[in-house]
Amino acid sequence: MGMDRKIEKKKWPPKKIITLVSIVSFVGIVAYLLIFKVSKSTLNVNAERLTISTVTKGPFQEFIAVMGNAEPEDIHFLTASDGGRVEEIFVEAGTMIKKGEKILRLANTNLLLDIMWREAELFQQSNNLRNTRLSMDQYRLQLVQELANIDNQLQQQKRVFDRYKELAKDDLIAKHEFEIAEDQYQYLQKRKELTLESQKNDMEFRQSQIDALEASLSRMQDNLEVVKEKQDNLTVKAPVSGHLTSLQAEIGEQKNPGTPFGQIDVLRGFKVVLGVDEHYLPRLELNRGGTFPLADQTYELIVDKIYPEVQDGRFEVDMAFVGAGPPNITRGMTFHIRLELGDISEAILLPRGGFFQTTGGNWIYILDESGSTATKTRIRVGRWNTDVYEVLEGLQPGDRVITSGYDNYGNMERLVLKRQSENR
Question: pTM for the complete prediction?
């Protein structure tokens, strides 16, 4: 009888092998996908080329950097009120000039013809007034003679009437003759009254004519004086003493009325004139401060005037010096002004950097505690100045962030910071 052979049990049945292979494949696929995703959203960067800044909390002062130019506080522009052709120039630009000193002389043919016409009209009106006065004097003499004649007739008739009246008492004269003498006497009395009334009205009318002519003549004389004053103004004189900084005039050149052709600076003091972007017009107020450095010193300014008219996207602001300005200041000197826009307030502060050009202040890379990785984080910024942004959301004091440019990072969610020594 042969010996029975022991049958050994298989350790890896096919069913188990298939199950194990499936699990390994699934894990491999998941691992592959995870590795692929991480590789797509993670980027190794050179830490030595980054600018890493720390978020802080402290006083925030909003300000902007603008260019300002020094100008005299008191400037007088030269203009020709009526215009004309430049006939003679007495001084040159760049010289000191005294008040009343001649600068240039203009010729204006139309103004000269206007003066001649007004003088002729004034002469004619003067003759009319003279003739009217003479006529009135002659009429007045005529009235005196007429009244004297009436008085003489009235006086003679009164004698006749008085004599007839006495005779009539004794019936020595016919009643009819007495009545005729009485009627004639009353007629002459009435005639005298009417003559006096008529003469009074005529004299008042003629006097009103003379008054009107005199008023018209006076207006003509005043107008002529104004025109002659305009002619005198064709010789442009310095309104103040100062520095004739510019004079745009050539012999024979035509100057239009009211057009500036030069200016005089009164060197009593200087101001700084700024051209500010129109975006800041609603936010800038009088008495806001500003500073600028010059020769190892910082000078303070204050907003003195704001001109709201916008030209080419900018408006002008005058700033006055607080205390003494720089020594030897001259017109046209340029200063880099740090202009305040608001009051100082407590805020979370993020240093400015090139990252803003890519993110617009909507997100930033924030480092973990180890400083080896940086994760994309959404933030919101508010106001800013030339140094920092005001953080409204997303960051806390002490956070470390990358503030250098993000041009080469695309949409990476995470940055791994590597040192050059680690890459070798």
Answer: 0.49
